[in-house]
Design brief:
With 382 residues, the chain is an alpha+beta fold. Helix content is 26%, strand content 18%. The C terminus is likely disordered. It binds 2-oxoglutaric acid and fe (ii) ion. InterPro entries: DIOX_N, IPNS-like_FE2OG_OXY, IPNS-like_sf, Oxoglu/Fe-dep_dioxygenase_dom.
Length: 382
């Protein structure tokens, strides 16, 4: 093991397998039907086929790749180049824009997943700058705060290329949310309003070569807490997806200029579990560094919490109700979530409020999934 910090070492049962399963891949979906300027979303027979493909992929895999998505290749190449430049700098330079308790965006190199350190470094930025969020998770506190992006001195075009890329990602996310709504039998714009005060963010990932790739992971197994994830991976590859049918880890073969899409917890809730947020992880290797870029579309804080924690009807925009739910769970009011989703996502939200304390014993107050009230996806109270 040499000098590798034991904090990086995965428990035996979660270490990557030496023999990668590459046989069957996640579905590859061609979006040209909706990417062409003359496409007509209303009466296109091809649209019906596409919607069915999206629905099947979400249901059977929770993951798919898209091609002919309409995102100009140059925008992706620009951000990839700037990301390489940024991570290539000495640590002291990157640490000038390090995330901390006050500045929750920027560079970070000690991320942990399930208490094991990830073999990676990241740079986070919000799509809305600044993003307005509650200053505290307590519903009685009405104060809001603003999260600002941090920008390094070099590369000096990082901000511009990230903002350009974010605009493209927003368009793609909007198209995908529309297709997913249609695939659930909902109007195409059913979810759009929830993103009006979005808290979406972009993460640049860098996975350096690792001397113990059979013991460590770039990102340990996890599910994403967001609505969707739109991931651009480079040609090195390393993403693995847990196949729903048998729990086998499958390697996602890099497809040039494709984006990998996965269903997050929020869509799982919005679809009443018809679509599931699926476990995945990122492997590292000893020979080549790897880069990827994630866009995590998050609805406004209110809708996150309505979905993930059952916000009360009286909730004011931006009040975090998820945590409150832990304390008031017995009321069963608008409870739309089951234990694991609440746990995971609430932890994610609390991690952004490091000074707040999670109520003790809260898990015991969570209802079992069989007690859960389903989301009224066809009604108006979503
Ligand atoms: O880089 C990857 O392949 C996966 C990253 C990921 O799963 C995440 O950031 O949530
Ligand atoms: Fe992920």
């Amino acid at each position: 093991m040499g000098e590798v910090d034991p904090a990086f070492i995965q428990p035996q049962e979660h270490r990557p397998k030496p023999d990668i399963t590459r046989a069957e891949g996640i579905p590859l979906i061609d979006l040209s039907t909706i990417s062409s300027p003359i496409s007509n979303l209303d009466n296109d027979q091809a649209l019906g086929v596409l919607v069915e493909e999206i629905g099947d992929a979400c249901k059977n895999w929770g993951f798919f790749q898209v091609i002919n998505h309409g995102v100009p290749l140059a925008k992706r190449q620009n951000i990839e180049k700037a990301s390489r430049f940024f991570f290539d700098q000495p640590l002291e330079e990157k640490r000038k824009v390090r995330r901390n308790e006050e500045k929750v965006l920027g560079y970070y190199d000690t991320e942990h997943t399930k208490n094991v350190r990830d073999w990676k470094e990241v740079f986070d930025l919000n799509v809305q700058d600044p993003t307005v969020v509650p200053a505290s998770y307590k519903p009685a506190h009405e104060e809001l705060t603003r999260w600002f992006n941090q920008w390094p001195e070099y590369p000096n075009d990082l901000r511009e290329v990230c903002e350009e890329y974010a605009k493209e990602m927003e368009k793609l996310a909007c198209k995908l949310m529309g297709l997913i709504a249609l695939s659930l039998g909902l109007p195409e714009d059913r979810f759009h309003g929830f993103f009006e005060e979005q808290t979406s963010f972009i993460r640049l990932n860098h996975y350096p070569p690792c001397p113990v790739p059979d013991l460590a992971l770039g990102v340990g197994r996890h599910k994403d807490a967001f609505a969707l994830t739109i991931l651009a991976q480079d040609d090195v590859g390393g993403l693995e997806v847990k196949r729903k049918t048998d729990g086998e880890w499958l390697w996602v073969k890099p497809t040039p200029n494709a984006y990998i899409i996965n269903v997050g917890d929020i869509i799982q809730v919005w679809s009443n579990d018809i679509y599931e947020s699926v476990e995945h992880r990122a492997m590292v290797n000893s020979g080549r560094e790897r880069f990827s870029i994630s866009l995590f579309p998050w609805p406004s804080t209110l809708h996150q919490c309505a979905a993930l924690g059952g916000a009360r009807k009286s909730a004011k925009p931006c009040q975090i109700q998820t945590i409150q739910l832990g304390e008031n769970f017995s009321s069963q009011e608008n409870v739309v979530i089951f234990r694991s989703l609440t746990l995971r996502t609430s932890r994610f939200i609390t991690s952004r409020y490091p000074n707040q304390r999670w109520p003790k014993n809260w898990t015991e107050r969570c209802p079992s999934s069989s007690n859960r009230t389903l989301m009224p996806i066809n009604g108006s109270t979503l």
